[in-house]
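Section 5: illustrative case.
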């Protein structure tokens, strides 16, 4: 993990817009662990700053998302206008002990992506829940890679416009990997790679809030080339930010 974070820290060191914030610390089995977080402040846009949370590697054996976020950070440095009007809160490794051990679950044996908003005692979940509450995100994007899928797909939740963001993201990412067009993916009904249901306890916004953020879980086929997965994630993130800015601008003109 230190090598992965070193490359992110290096980008943060050289950039006035990319900030490494104090990681969450927790102890387990006599060892200290940290859950890193970064903030990227894009150039000022026309309206209020839009706050987006981007979360990767909540399943420790899915490092592809974390790697994609270093790629995405480089993209932001060369093309800051991608983040115009945004504050991006980036959590590249949401399950640090699982990441170190290359296991889906944390070292407590928990699938952290089934623990949200259930009064979980897991420190990783508590920290991420408090971040989600504190920042009141306008959008939540989570990155996963699925070793049972041969193509790209995603889950939508929260605000109704989520689907209008995922479709173009799948289209852009489709330059790098095919889409999973099965009618059933991961046990859920799917349409053109889009699933509108989800598991209980996944990383998402606090259920029942008045103005829910958009929620997108983007999944790459884990057995595909790592390079293509990283590029697909990057293309999807760029697309979501562009589309959402566009939709907000239209809504404000009405
Ligand atoms: Zn996963």
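Designed sequence:
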């Amino acid at each position: 993990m230190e090598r992965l974070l070193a490359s992110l820290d290096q980008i943060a060191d050289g950039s006035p817009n990319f900030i490494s914030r104090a990681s969450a610390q927790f102890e387990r089995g006599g060892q200290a662990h940290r859950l890193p977080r970064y903030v990227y402040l894009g150039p000022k846009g026309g309206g209020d700053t839009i706050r987006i949370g981007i979360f990767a590697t909540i399943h420790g054996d899915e490092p592809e998302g974390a790697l994609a976020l270093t790629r995405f950070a480089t993209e932001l440095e060369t093309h800051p206008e991608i983040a115009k009007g945004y504050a991006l809160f980036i959590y590249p490794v949401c399950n640090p002990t699982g990441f170190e051990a290359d296991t889906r679950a944390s070292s407590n044996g928990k699938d952290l992506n089934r623990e949200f908003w259930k009064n979980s005692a897991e420190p990783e979940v508590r920290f991420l829940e408090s971040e989600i509450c504190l920042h009141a995100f306008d959008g939540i994007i989570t990155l996963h890679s699925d070793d049972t899928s041969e193509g790209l797909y995603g889950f939508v939740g929260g605000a109704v416009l989520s689907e209008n963001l995922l479709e173009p993201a799948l289209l852009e990412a489709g330059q790098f990997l095919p889409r999973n067009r099965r009618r059933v993916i991961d046990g859920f009904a799917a349409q053109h790679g889009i699933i509108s249901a989800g598991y209980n306890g996944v990383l998402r916004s606090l259920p029942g809030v008045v103005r829910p953020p958009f929620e997108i879980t983007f999944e790459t086929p884990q057995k595909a080339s790592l390079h293509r997965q990283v590029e697909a994630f990057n293309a999807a993130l760029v697309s979501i930010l562009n589309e959402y800015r566009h939709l907000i601008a239209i809504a404000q003109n009405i």
